[in-house]
Write a structure and sequence with these properties.
It is a single chain. Strands 3-2-4-1-5-6-7 form a 7-stranded mixed β-sheet, sandwiched between helices. It is rod-shaped and about 155 Å long. It contains 20 helices and 7 strands. It is mainly alpha-helical. Strand 6, helix 7 and strand 7 form a beta-alpha-beta unit.
Amino acid sequence: MAPGGTRSSRSPGGPGARPTPAQRLRPRLDALRELVGLSRTRLDGATLAEAGRVLGAADERYRLSGEHTVIAVAGATGSGKSSLFNALVGADHSDVGARRPTTSEPVACVWSGGQPGAHGLLDRLGVPVRRRHAPAAGSATLPGLVLLDLPDHDSAAAGHREQVDRMLELVDAVIWVVDPEKYADAVLHERYLRPLAGHAEVMFVVLNQVDRLPGDAAVQVVDDLRRLLDEDGLALGEHGEPGAAVLALSAATGEGVGDLREALRQFVAERGAADRRLTADVDAAAGRLWPVYVADGRYGLTEAAREEFEDWLAEAVGAGAMGSAAERDWLRHGERACGTPWLRLRLRRRRPGAVRGRSGRTSPGRTGRSKLWHRDAYPDAYTEADAADEAGGEDEYGTVSGWVPVDGRATARPLVEQAVRAVAGEASEGLPAPWAQAVREAAFRGAEGLPEALDRAAAVSEGDLRAGPLVRPRWWSVAAVAQGLLTMLLVTGVLWLLAVVVGAAEAGEWLSALLVTAIGATGGPVVSWVCGVSGRGAARRYGQEAERRLRTAAAGCGRAAVLEPVAAELLRYREVREQYAVAAGL
């Protein structure tokens, strides 16, 4: 805005009108309040302190008068801010003198305009009752304005600076008064203007004492002041654009004071200063929270990461080895069902003490339940029976025996830990540090009982494997009947041959007897071989189904213990991220 310019008034509400500052601010405050509530268990109090302060200030401001606008006049020692305050109110309510600092307490002037409630605002600001005044009779009418004259922000008294800082957080707008000598003061720009750059819409910057500048020096100083404000990041309200108003005036002579008074009249008449101030506060608080709420690119669990996690768990419980053992077990059950009576008799004579399991040939670490891994990891639990199994013992069905889990320590814990670390790292990648830590903690906390859950799932699968196929192929029964008939042929042929030998049958029948014996003797192994070849496909499917069941059980344990808690944390982060987007006005 050019010297002497004014802010543009906002268009009144109506159909199709732009939302007012209050209409835009209320949802953001609600979202910020929800955001703070959802984040208390994830973020420390210091991180949320500024957001809490803004919410408290907003609640308190809205409880008080909405018909008044509180504007503070702030400046350095000797800038003439008290003189400007008196010029605006039309009376010498604020002390002016050569002694520094002159203003030791805030002074207030209230244009009530018939609207009560200003005293509540002044109580909030801590303005003493004796320092509250009314404008002089006959002065310009500025209904709804509460004007404050603050102590010097560069006062030698530390209490004055603290008072200024506190009140600047509570007022609706600020008039910064600078003079030609100290308008570039580093304290003003670095301590106040630069940090408050986001509050440009509720800020006036006034160059006072222009009567001391010769010729066009005032224009040059104002231009240089604008340059400094631009370097501070302070938006300037030029040509009706929102931003800080920059004016040049002289409180001593009255030059330009009328322009400032008119700008204040329009500004107060809009009744939106408090909303714009709070909006700027919310913007600042949201900006400080950006690093703890905004993810760095993609985040969350991909389907590939979930599948890799389930693969690790399947490997930890030995799902692949379980499938291979089930396939061999199906073939041996088929061998017993379709084999000759002599083979079944031999199988029954095998020692019955061992439980079917996987072969000790499995490489250590690849299957969490192999004998070799058990022996290396738990030598104190490695029994003589395990050693006998490793030597090649077979059960009653001819199955190579594996070890039975001892003390529930079957699952390969290193593989489980590696799986959890991998999925936690994948899920937390790209998240802000507090939420990444929460995701990792959820994963590791859920993994504490995961090995035991996997042990139980594997034990159930082993129990199913010991029971054998639930549905036996019908052709096993047909083969068994055929084996019985062939056995009867063999027995008949042998007896027939004996009868020929002892003369109980005619000698010419030996060829027929020999043929019957040969059919009975060779037919049984042939039937067994054919059944074995025909059953390989079914055995493979049975083994794949056993592996799938164990993989599914292991995956279910992993989902319940790790993936679901991790997903819950990610969902919580998405909720707070959505609330943050609303609070930040994104």
